[in-house]
Amino acid sequence: MQCGIDFCFNDEAKSSAKVVSNTFDAHRLVLFAQNHHSELADKVVTLLFQAYQEKGLNVAKKEVLLEVAAEAGLPVEETSQFLDSQAGKEEIRTQDTEAKRRNISGVPHFTIRG
Question: Between 20 and 30 A from 43 (CA), which of 36, 50, 65, 114?
């Protein structure tokens, strides 16, 4: 039985090496799911973590985000239009500023008794 995350750390057995990605648009994808298809938001988050942490995919690339969206069940054309727009950018910037103010530098993040 296997539990947890199968992290990809440049493992030669994996098809691709871990890629450090700008996750700004991945956060926008999650925001889109939360605001427009809330029942799929958790699945989007799980699939993004799998794409990035287990498969070593570059989640800064629109095609990767659209693959995640499709697998999660989001409407791909609507998602593509959202990612091509300015929608959600200010909200993600605000969330980022607040996270930095709280000394949060990555996700997932857990605050215990704080």
Answer: 114
